[in-house]
Amino acid sequence: MSKQKAPVTPAVRQLRQTQVGFTDHVYCYEEKGGTARSARELGVAEHSVIKTLIMENDHNNPLVVLMHGDLQVSTKELARLTGARSIVPCTAETAQKLTGYLVGGTSPFGMRRTMPVYLEETILALPKIYLNGGKRGYLVGLTPQELVRVLRPILVKVGI
């Protein structure tokens, strides 16, 4: 793990403002390395590294999905649960415009725009999770209960 100083991002500001206890984890970012790379760098299971995915439904309404790093989202099931015809990932440009973060550095905290957040319910069974802290190469560690307290996500079972 890198000895670099942890950045102060909008995500970190929101975590501090809401008094969330979290740990900083700076690592060497690798383009297209994904959660496998960050899990390896941190020495944790990829299942406990949570992806922040920005998607949109067939009416172009954006939403956030938080999913285990080693699973994919069943967009068909998510669409069914949300009453949409379809759900697709946003383009990188749209995601950056909505969140204020670069793809690969998207945090569910401190986003530019408020969007509904959907959380894979099995994440709640983990003792500690690692999410992007708002910058490529930077994760924050916290309990799933703190994430729920701050973000108030809608629980879903859409992991495949």
If you had to describe this structure to a student in words, what would you say it looks like?
It is a single chain. By secondary structure, the protein is an alpha/beta fold. It has one domain: YbaK/aminoacyl-tRNA synthetase-associated domain (YbaK protein), CATH 3.90.960.10. It is 26% helix and 26% strand. The protein has helices at residues 10-17, 34-42, 75-82, 92-99, 144-151; strands at 23-26, 49-57, 62-68, 87-89, 117-120, 129-135, 138-142, 154-156. Strands 1, 2, 3, 4, 5, 6, 7 and 8 form an eight-stranded mixed β-sheet that branches. Strand 2 and strand 3 (62-68) form a beta hairpin. The protein starts with 9 loop residues before the first helix and ends with a strand. The relative contact order is 0.24. The model has no long low-confidence stretch (mean pLDDT 96).
